Amino acid sequence: MKTQLVDGVEVHRGSGNVFADLGLADADKLKIKTGLVIEIRKAMKSRGLTQLEAAKRMGITQPKVSDMMRGDFTNLSERKLMDCLTRLGYDIEIKIRPAKTEVGHLMLAAA
Asked: What count of other Cβ atoms lies within 10 Å of the Cβ of residue 67?
């Protein structure tokens, strides 16, 4: 993390993954899941879906949608979140390529 002084305040530049910066285990997985939930929220809003309507389309319960909207998606796997997005009319493409560094990473790019 790069540190600089701005107006007498020490500022740390993040890595791009707040979960890794906080030292959380499974930081890459949390970043992916968060990105998927953000896209689900956008899809629900753009389609004007209630939590109950979205739950029916996604094949999960309304309480799980409520949890997701409040930021608690620990009970849903990345695979299930991707399934929810496809049920909401999204295509998901997974690309695998050699890493530029010794250890690769997970990345989510939304259009």
From this structure: 16
